Amino acid sequence: MKETLLKAFGEVYGDTEGAKVFFAPGRVNLIGEHTDYNGGHVFPCALTIGTYGVARVRKDKKLRFYSMNFGHLGVIESGLDDLKPAKEAGWTNYPKGVMWAFKEKGYQIPFGLDILLNGNIPNGSGLSSSASVEVLTGYVLKEFFGFEVSNQDLALIGQFSENNFNGVNCGIMDQFAIAMGKKDHAIFLDTADLSYTYAPVKLEGMKLVIASSNKKRGLGDSKYNERRDECEMALAELQKVVDINGLGDLTQEQFEANKSAIKDIVRAKRAKHAVYENQRTIKAVKALEENDIAQFGQLMNESHISLRDDYEVTGAELDTLVEEAWKIDGVVGSRMTGAGFGGCTVSLVKDEAIDTFISKVGEAYRRKIGYKADFYVVEVGDGPRTL
Ligand code: NG1
Ligand code: MG
């Protein structure tokens, strides 16, 4: 892999002098969905697939970007002094955004860079290729320019850049999971104060399978912000009757006792999801610690039902993938993961059921939805590193 990447870098930029190879993973969230902007818990893990980058420092302030995934776009040039928040699409806005964010935070980036990226995260699959590129960029800057930033800082800078440069009001989960990734562990993160622990994910005789719906999100982005607004309003109403900072501070009992403060039925359902999902996440981590995989799977299923019925962010595509998965013997648990609306599902599947899972769910999906889903058997891996 390293040699192939360096060779490609040399072909694009003329030579490989001073070039180094880096990697940042993708991530999948096992449970705890739409809780990260509600002061709740999430339970994501980094994957062994991710973004590879080759980079070198230039002698001037020029920036050159090339992506092997979007090779047809050629080399894209820019300058360190020309970085301005840009809400338009275009993959270079992720690395540019992180450079801009470092500058905003007071770090001096003395020289420009030549960068080549090649990701093996399926594009738009919901495994956070964007956060992977953000963390990778931060890591590259840290390595080349000696910035004293922790991996947690890289996550925060990535989120800051996505919020303020790309205009996506995301929570901290994606960047945190990627920057703090640890092989064979998932990260139990409390987004209220960023305290976290690692929980071993010992999947004996089973694997994590991602099913990508291939449904484009688009509209989802506005719905994402709509859900955030609904939760914020519900929180403000609840704060009139109970002393909390976020929906994640409530137990289910406290929520039930106070929910009449929420003056709109739909909003109350959104808040219910956030509260219950947070409690489910806490229970799921405990179940995993006790090696009660069946209970963990059950909680994954309940998470999906809540996202489908109360939070209403699933849609026919994700529901089909999950409901078909539930029918199969050997599926321990299955749910949508990420923002929803499109993107992918994550399932815990026993080894002997994986082939059946892929063929049966794939077949039913094509029949009901009209196009194909893609399947990936994934492994839990480490955070960003130099190769
Ligand atoms: P995805 O769509 O998987 O990147 C989004 C948010 C997360 C989190 C989840 C829902 C972005 C970039 N990320 O994840 O912070 O809120 O939805 O749990 O929007
Ligand atoms: Mg993203």
From TrEMBL:
Residues the record lists as binding substrate: 33-36, 224
Matching SUPFAM superfamilies: GHMP Kinase, C-terminal domain, Ribosomal protein S5 domain 2-like
Principal subcellular localisation of the protein: cytoplasm
Pfam families, per database record: GalKase_gal_bdg, GHMP_kinases_C, GHMP_kinases_N
Ligand binding (Mg(2+)): 130, 162
Enzyme active site: 174 (proton acceptor)
Marked site: Transition state stabilizer: 27
Binding of ATP, residues: 67, 124-130
Ranges for domain GHMP kinase C-terminal: 284-366
A cellular component term, taken from the record's GO annotations: cytosol
Residues covered by the Galactokinase N-terminal domain: 7-56
Domain GHMP kinase N-terminal stretches: 93-182
Reaction catalyzed: alpha-D-galactose + ATP = alpha-D-galactose 1-phosphate + ADP + H(+)
Keywords: ATP-binding, Carbohydrate metabolism, Cytoplasm, Galactose metabolism, Kinase, Magnesium, Metal-binding, Nucleotide-binding, Transferase
GO BP terms in the entry: galactose metabolic process
Residues in coiled coil: none
Subcellular localization(s) per the UniProt record: Cytoplasm
E.C. number: 2.7.1.6
Homology family: Belongs to the GHMP kinase family. GalK subfamily.
Function: Catalyzes the transfer of the gamma-phosphate of ATP to D-galactose to form alpha-D-galactose-1-phosphate (Gal-1-P).
Designated name of the protein: Galactokinase
Source species: Parablautia intestinalis
Gene: galK
